[in-house]
Amino acid sequence: MLSPHEFATLMLVKDATDQLEVDRADLDVLLARQLVSLEHASSGQTLPRLTHQGHSFLKAAGRIH
Predict the structure, then answer these.
(1) 39 Cβ neighbours under 8 A, 6+ residues apart
(2) Which of 27, 51, 56, 65 is packed most tightly, with the most Cβ within 10 A?
(3) In sequence order, what DSSP letters do the residues of 12-63 get, joined into one string?
(4) CA–CA gap between residue 13 and residue 20 (Å, rounded)
(5) CATH 1.10.10.10 is the classification of domain 4-60
(6) pLDDT digits over 10-50, tens only?
(7) How much is the pTM?
(8) Domain extents for the chain?
(9) Structure-model confidence comparison of residues 59 and 41, the more confident one
(10) pLDDT tier at 65, thresholds 50, 70, 90
(11) CB of 22 within 8 A of CB of 29?
């Protein structure tokens, strides 16, 4: 089960474009649960992105269609 902060972070990652400031502890939990992965952008930034599991989790929670 995700904490409310972790769930909110997952939703923020889904809607994020380029810059996203999230709590590292929440992001670490999402990484460990394989709900997000880190993507290296051409700008040199490392950005969190939803994995297939993260997308499925949000879909099951009714947060996306």
Answers:
(1) 46, 47, 48, 49
(2) 27
(3) HHHH--S-----HHHHHHHHHTTSEEEEE-TTS-EEEEE-HHHHHHHHHTTS
(4) 7
(5) yes
(6) 999 998 867 788 899 999 999 999 999 999 888 888 889 99
(7) 0.85
(8) 4-60
(9) 59
(10) low
(11) no
Tell me, what amino acid is at 50?
L
Q: Encoding tokens for residue 64?
A: 């996306």
- Encoded tokens for 38: 């880190």
Answer for the pair 5, 36: CB distance below 8 angstroms, yes or no.
no
Q: How far apart are CA 21 and CA 3, in angstroms?
A: 18
Q: Locate tokens 């993260």: which residue?
A: 54
Measured between alpha carbons, how far is residue 17 from residues 3, 32, 64 in Å?
23, 22, 17
Q: What would you report as the CA-atom Rg of the chain, rounded to the nearest whole angstrom?
A: 11
pLDDT of residue 31: 97
